[in-house]
Write a structure and sequence with these properties.
The protein is mainly α and about 290 residues long. The chain is about 65% helix and about 0% strand.
């Protein structure tokens, strides 16, 4: 109890949270890099099994076994030379600075995104800890923000929002709100339903009018998860913020980077950013700014 009292001090907790958040950010880099590849391997295995079953329904041949690949194995290595990353080369943020952003074996450039994700994880954890203190709400808010960070990065890379993150995020949101941590349970359940159905309706309306798909199904699940955490009352603000940011970024990409008009722009990062803003400052925005817009 004495230790928890010391840890909960306002001058101590954010720094401890910063260190933990940096380590979490390092793990998020692994998730962002490996999870889409794990999904591709699973899809290839399923396709191979289906092809084998169609070729020989009586005794389908098993697809060739692949080496284990998940979030834990194999050990992290340089993608250019396959150099195994030692423990001292894997210290969040500090190792990247010490190595000057390059592999110690071949000198290949280490993506700037790696330290950015680590730093983002640390800053988010520190801010949440300073705001909520040593509470269950701080743990939930950090988990929520870190999941949004991983989803945004994966969607930018692959235009995928994995169910392995969105669905657990939805159910943990409902679990945290059993005690009304961020929203009453009823509002959270309605938020999950309304979040999914709102984008699902827009998707089908757009498809019926244009014959094209305007967004992926992962966006429905992500907004449902945000609704499960924040309640249905925050959904209009989340949609407004994500649409505003998406419009600004989309127009900028087309105007300044020769981004083709027919090339899809992932919507998940804008939803994630809006969910993050709504969690931490949504109440203040709703009270101060939305009445002015009305």
């Amino acid at each position: 109890m004495v230790f928890l009292g010391w840890l909960g001090q306002p001058a101590v907790l954010p720094w401890v949270a910063l260190g933990i958040g940096l380590c979490v950010g390092s793990f998020l880099n692994v998730v962002i890099h490996r999870l889409p590849r794990m999904m591709e391997r699973e899809w290839r295995t399923q396709c191979a099994e289906l092809a084998a079953a169609e070729a020989s329904p009586a005794s389908p041949a098993a697809p060739p076994a692949e080496a284990p690949y998940n979030l834990w194995v194999p050990r992290s290595a340089c993608p250019s030379c396959d150099h195994r990353i030692a423990a001292l080369e894997n210290v969040p943020l500090l190792s990247w600075l010490w190595l000057r952003g390059k592999c110690s074996a071949c000198g290949a450039t280490i993506s700037l995104r790696c330290p950015v994700i680590e730093l983002a994880g640390g800053v988010v954890a520190a801010y949440v800890a300073s705001r909520y203190g040593l509470t269950l709400a701080a743990l939930g808010a950090t988990f929520f923000c870190c999941c949004l960070l991983a989803l945004a990065a994966i969607d930018l890379d692959t235009q995928l929002l994995p169910d392995d993150i969105t669905l657990p995020l939805l159910w943990t949101g409902l679990a945290f709100n059993l005690g009304a941590t961020f929203a009453p349970l009823g509002a959270a359940v309605i938020g999950a339903m309304a979040g999914y159905l709102s984008l699902w309706s827009i998707y089908w309306a757009f498809k019926l009018v244009t014959g094209k798909e305007g967004m992926g199904h992962g966006d429905f699940k992500l907004l449902a998860a945000i609704g499960a955490w924040l309640g249905w009352q925050m959904l209009p603000l989340v949609l407004l913020l994500s649409a505003m940011v998406g419009a600004i970024v989309g127009v900028s990409l087309i105007a300044f980077t020769r981004h083709g008009r027919d090339k899809p722009i992932p919507f998940g990062p804008y939803l994630a950013a809006a969910g993050f803003i709504a969690l931490l400052w949504g109440g203040d925005i709703a009270r101060r700014w939305l009445p002015l817009l009305a």
